[in-house]
Amino acid sequence: MYFLERVMAVPRLPEKLNRLEEIARNLWWSWNYPAQQMFRYMDPEMWYQEKRSPVRLLRRVSQNRLYELSEDKDFAEMYESVVRQFDEYIAGKDTWLERAHGERKNQCIAYFCAEYGFHESFPIYSGGLGILAGDHLKTASDLGLNFVAVGLLYRNGYFEQMIDESGWQQNMYHSYEFEDFPVIPALDASGDEVFVNVDFPGRKIWAKIWKAAIGRTSLYLLDTDIPQNEPDDRKITATLYGGDREMRIKQEILLGIGGVRALRMLGYSPKVWHMNEGHAAFLSVERIRELVQKDSMDFSTASMIVKTSSVFTTHTPVPAGNDTFSLDMIDKYFRDFWSKMKAERDEFMDLGIEKVPGGGQQFSMTVLALRLSALANGVSKLHGRESRNLWNHIYPDLPAVEVPITHVTNGVHIWTWLNPNLVELLDKYLPKGWHEKVYDPEVWEGVDSIPEEEIWELHMSLKSRARGFLQGRLKKQRMRLGETIEDLLEVEEALPENVLTVGFARRFATYKRATLIFKDINRLKSIITNSERPVQFVFAGKAHPADDPGKELIRKLYEISRTPEFKSRVIIVENYDMNIARHLVSGVDIWLNTPRRPHEASGTSGEKAGMNGVLNFSVLD
Q1: CB contact at 8 A, 518 and 123
Q2: DSSP track, 328-359
Q3: Beta partners for 209?
Q4: Of 214, 117, 145, nearest to 604 (Cα)?
Q5: Strand partners, 109
C-alpha cells in the first residue's frame, strides 16, 4: 500500500459567522482579549489542545458545533462585538501617525529580521530577538505606521524542549503544515501566487512568498520547501538557526537579497530599510545592485544612496554573537554578484571585512550593516556604549565616544503582555480612552487612586492562575518521564500561593547565570526553609541546540530541583514559550535577573513583569 496524500476535511463557516476566518488569520487577535475569549467559547477543550490557535481551531471544530454557534445568542453578541472592534481597528482612523506626522503616512518602512514571535502557536521565533520583532510589528500597527516586514517561514520552526530523566535538554522538531499557520500565499495584481529567486553557485533557488497580517501591518515570509527546488535546497527554510555556516549564509542571502526582490515584486518602494540584527545585511548589497543595473550608477554613488536610507539595530555586545563567514564562503556565493554591482572583489569584501584576533580576516555581517547604514543603534544606553567600544576598530580615525552607534532602549508591546484582568482593573480607575494614551504620564496618575486591597486581591488571583497552569505543565512533564504516583501527587502541592515566588525565565545562555543563586547553597537552604518567610523559585528556558554549557545549566538546575531539600521549592518547567512567559510575568512575586554585566544587551522580561505589578530583583545591567 502506498500513502499518496493526506486529505483533511475542513468545516464550512455558516453565513452568519463568515468573518471568523478573516479574524483568525490576522494576528490582531493575539493581543485582543475579547477575540481570544470568542474563539475559546467555540470549543474550550480544543482551544487549549490546539495551542490557542484560531486557525487550527477553525480547521478542526465540528460542523455541528459551528451550526450551534450560529444560533447561539451569547456567541452572536461576542462575535458582533469582536467584528466591530476589528473593523474599527483596521480602518485606522486617528492613529498616532495621522496626528503626529500625517505628511509621512505614505512613506513606507521595510523591516527585516530572521525571526518573529507573535504567539506560541506560530513558532517561527527562538527568543528575545524574535519576541522584540513581533512586538515591533504589533506596535507599528497600533501607531498606524506604513510598515512592511520580511522574514523566513520555517517548516520545522524552532525546537520544542523536553528535559529527560537525567535533566538533559532534548530538542524535538516538528514538520508544520502552513495551512495551520496564520498565513496565506501572497498574490500579485493578477491574483497569482508570487515566487522569487536568488542565485546560488550553478543554480537558482526559488521561494514562495507567504503573507501574515499583524493588525494593519503585513509580514512577508519566504519558503524554499517547494517543488521548484532540489531536495537539499528545500531545506534552506527548514529550521530557524539550524545547520552549519553554509546553511546560515544560504538563509541570510535568501532573507536579504530574496527579501528585497520579494518586496519589489509585490510593488513596495520603501523609504527606509531597517535591519534588525546583521542576519539581513545582504539586503544592502542587493539594493546597490539595483541602483547600478537599473539606474546606471557607479558602485560608490549607489553605496552612498543605499546608506542614506538604511537603519541597523545591533543586539549583541560580544564579538562571538555576531555572524561572520570565511572569505572563501563569500567568494563561493558572491563571485558572480559583485560584477553586477560594478565592483571589484576587494571593493565588495571591504564592505564587511574585519581582522580576526591572531591573524587572518573574515566577513562580518555586522560590519557590512554598519558600513551601509546612516543610523545604527544598540538597544540600551549601556549597550550603545559597549557597541561603540566593540566596533571602534572599523572607525580607526574616531575615538570610541564618536563612533556613530547610538541607542534606543528596547520596549515591549503593552497589549500582548499586560494581563487582561489588570486591564479591567485599570479601566475602573484610569481616564476613559487611556488605551490610546498609554505614553502620556498624566494618564498614570490615576493608579494612585486604586485601593491597595484590590491590587493585592488581583495579584493573588493571577498567582493562583499561574500556579494551576504551571502544575498542569509539570504534571505532563513528570507523566512523560514515567514518574511514580507519589511524584505526581507532589505536583498537587507544588507552588503554594502563600510562599514568596521568584521567577526566572529566559534563554539559558551561560552569561545569564541561571544558577548564580546556588553558589552559596547552604545560605539558600536557610532562606527557602524559613518557616516564617519561605521562598520558592520557578525556572524556565531553552538553551540553543548547540550550546552544551547552557544545557549543562539546565541539567544542574534539574538535579538540584530533585533533591529532598529543594524538591518542593525549586521548580523547572520545560518547553518555555510565550504562554509560559505570560503566566510567569503576571503570576510570580519577584522577577530575578542576574546576567553578567555588560553581556545582556537589553533584557525585556523585567519590563513585562514590572507592568504587571511584579517586583524586579536585578543586577545593575
Answers
A1: no
A2: HHHHHHHTTTGGGGT--HHHHHHTTEEEPTTS
A3: 222
A4: 117
A5: 147, 272
Domain containing 323: what range?
100-407
Identify the burial level of 272 via C-beta atoms within 10 angstroms of its C-beta, where 0-12 means exposed, 13-18 middle and 19 or more buried.
middle
The yes-or-no verdict on residue 235 having pLDDT over 50 is: yes
Global pTM exceeds 0.70? yes
Domain contains 395:
yes
Same domain, 477 and 433: yes
Question: How are beta strands 147-152 and 109-112 bridged, if at all?
Answer: parallel
At 559, which CATH number?
3.40.50.2000
Query: What's the per-residue H, E or C state across 208-223?
Result: EEEEEEECCEEEEEEE
Q: Omega of the bond prior to 54 within 30 degrees of 0, cis?
A: no
Domain count, the chain: 3
Convert the pLDDT of each residue in 63-97 to its tens digit. Answer: 999 999 999 999 999 999 999 999 999 998 889 99
Domain boundary among 73, 91, 109: 91
pLDDT band with cut points at 50, 70 and 90 for residue 1: very low
Q: Rounded distance, CA 484 to CA 477, Å?
A: 12
Same domain, yes or no: 151 and 201:
yes
Q: Based on the number of CB atoms within 10 Å of its own CB, is 208 exposed (0-12), middle (13-18) or buried (19 or more)?
A: buried
Per-residue pLDDT of 520-562, as tens digits, reads 999 999 999 888 999 999 999 999 998 999 999 999 999 999 9
- Tell the burial category of 461 from Cβ atoms under 10 Å away from its Cβ (0-12, 13-18, 19+): middle
Residue that terminates a domain, selected from 377, 407, 437: 407
CA atoms within 13 A on the CB side of 273: 29
